[in-house]
Amino acid sequence: MRRRGCLTGCLGGCLNFIIFICVIVGVWYLGTYTLKTNSITIESDKIASDITFVQITDLHGSEFGKDNSELIARIEEAEPDFIISTGDMYTHWSSKGKDTAVALLGALAERYPVYSVCGEHDNDNEYEERLENAGVDVLDYESRDIYVGESMVRLYGITNAYYSDTFDLTREFSFDKSVYNILAAHICNPDAFADAGLDLTVSGDSHGGQIRIPYYGALINQGVFLPETKEGKAKYTKGLYKVSNTDVFISGGLGNYPVPIRFLNLPEVVVFHLKGE
């Protein structure tokens, strides 16, 4: 009887352990590979006709469905006028991830105008050439005028992996303040972007901290623990911020680096709705 009781106890313990592991794996998988759509509405008297665009960022070679079919379908649901990719679409050492990124952006470019800037991982001449051949417009300290209905917005793209203390966008661009100016940059530099007088900036890089803690936000960003509770650039980790008169947005992104773990931070497709006041 004692041996049978021990065996039953062991089996019960093993079953509880297996259930615990299954729960952990389920939470990890759903939190890391379940897409969500994040909708942002911004009003401006510079917008005559409504504009919808999608931002994707930090894919790091991930796939959502075969050939990223789930991700493409999620983007198509938004019916965007154009798409902005803000870098790190693959991890620097992964040739398979590079192929995945090119295939995704190329497939999207067959349906929509796609503009791309590079991050520190995908800042590669061969990658940029492949994107251009696939119909993607890669911006490296360049601008494009985009017309939608009666509206025109001016999109600027920069590819900085580092910002000096003297970084100043007005040394590179002359901004027409009568136009709605959007900046695409992989890494956010909120104060410098606001000083340039931009209307909207879209960035990634932070992955939203990957792991987020209730009431505290990101676990870590730029080497700072619980950055959203502190001052400094690291506190700008995920979401829409108002810095002076500039709307600064940082996406939590789609993929992960260096480890594929997310918690309370679903991979996101960001849909911007620009409307007249």
Describe the structure.
The chain has 277 residues and is α/β, with parallel strands linked by helices. It is 26% helix and 27% strand. It has five helices and 16 strands. A six-stranded mixed beta sheet has the order 1-16-2-3-4-5, with helices on one face. A six-stranded mixed beta sheet has the order 6-7-8-9-15-14. Strand 2, helix 2 and strand 3 form a beta-alpha-beta unit. The radius of gyration is 21 Å and the shape is globular. The model has no long low-confidence stretch (mean pLDDT 93).
Summarize the structure.
This protein has 277 residues and is of the alpha/beta class.
How many extended strands? 16
Low-confidence stretches: none
Q: Biggest β-sheet: count, sense, barrel?
A: 6 strands, mixed
Strand content: 25-35%
Euclidean distance between termini CA atoms: 79 Å
Assembly category? single chain
- Assign an overall shape: globular
Helix content: 25-40%
- Computed Rg: 21 Å
Order of helices and strands: HEEHEHEHEEEEHEEEEEEEE
Average the pLDDT over all residues and give the rounded result.
Answer: 93
- The strand line-up of the biggest sheet is 1-16-2-3-4-5
User: What structural class do you assign from the helix and strand content?
Assistant: alpha/beta
